[in-house]
Amino acid sequence: MPVEPTGLIVVDKPGGMTSHDVVARVRRLAKTRRVGHGGTLDPMATGVLIIGVGRATRLLTYVIGSDKVYRGTIRLGQSTVTDDAEGEVVSSAPADEVGDESIRAGLATLTGRISQVPSAVSAIKVNGQRSYARVRAGQDVELAAREITVSRLELLAVRRLPGLIDLDVEVACSSGTYVRALARDLGAGLGVGGHLTALRRTSVAASTPDATGFTLAEAVTLDELAEREDPITLPLPEAAARFFPRREATDSEARVLGHGGPLGPVGLAGPYAVFAPGGEVLAIVAERDGRARPEVVLAPAGG
């Protein structure tokens, strides 16, 4: 029986595709159904999309919950139904009189721990139905605000057009942040409306400051992926070592973990990856109540 491929793929997602489109393409290339992604990118957006294959799909919950960095362009002077360039313009107001200092002050109000109402045209479920489906069906949708963290919202460039202003920005933010909602809220705060015209995810942060995340520098395009014999760019042990702090297990500890049992604590900030003496990653564990307890067991069945 062929061995199922297992690991992560750092894809440079093209525009015009959904994240699920990318998953479907990887399923064909990897010849397995067990494929998932670590955090949705809108069809308009490009950049780092982490794809998990085989047992590595168990890591995706941590990838989804990690911080992200984006570069994008905000257009002031127009609001759209989707808060980005894919939706029709619903209102316009001349932005010529908005000064650079007002723009910087507006960006500052959107930095730090803030409350954000997600875009109505989003994949959030309302009573079991996606919000975007309700909007397209003509329903009024009001989503609840959620707490997010924008650790950096940097203004890179300002381009003034007749009645409009385009702002290039870099955003470092927590999971669950809608960058197009930041564009909407900036425009609303300045009284001229705003929406996102371009977005590129440049990195996905690691689980802790002691580990290393994933960036565009190592991302591959789908065309490049199709030319590879092995679609996996990061085998499971390497992926876990990159994303989590590392703990080495003894043979006896490896046997305990293989059966889902806890280990003694070593004082590492969790979650962290535990490796067998032979280099295989066994589990992702977290220390609590004086024990290192497995959150995800990664050793293959019978291993």
Tell me the layout of helices and strands.
Blueprint: E1 7-13, H1 19-30, E2 35-37, E3 46-53, H2 60-64, E4 68-76, E5 78-80, E6 89-92, H3 100-109, E7 112-116, E8 125-126, E9 129-130, H4 131-136, E10 146-161, E11 164-173, H5 179-190, E12 194-204, E13 214-215, H6 222-226, E14 234-235, H7 236-243, E15 246-248, H8 251-258, E16 272-275, E17 281-288, E18 291-297
Parallel strand pairs: 3-12, 15-16
Antiparallel strand pairs: 1-3, 1-14, 2-3, 4-11, 4-12, 5-6, 7-10, 8-9, 10-11, 12-13, 16-17, 17-18
Provide structural commentary.
This protein is α+β, with helices and mostly antiparallel strands. The chain has 3 domains: 91 residues, Pseudouridine synthase (2-Layer Sandwich); 129 residues, Pseudouridine synthase (2-Layer Sandwich); 53 residues, PUA domain (Archaeosine Trna-guanine Transglycosylase, Chain: A, domain 4), CATH 2.30.130.10. Helix content is 22%, strand content 35%. It starts with 6 loop residues before the first strand and ends in a 6-residue tail after the last strand. It is an enzyme of class 5 (isomerase). It catalyses: uridine(55) in tRNA = pseudouridine(55) in tRNA. Belongs to the pseudouridine synthase TruB family. Type 1 subfamily.
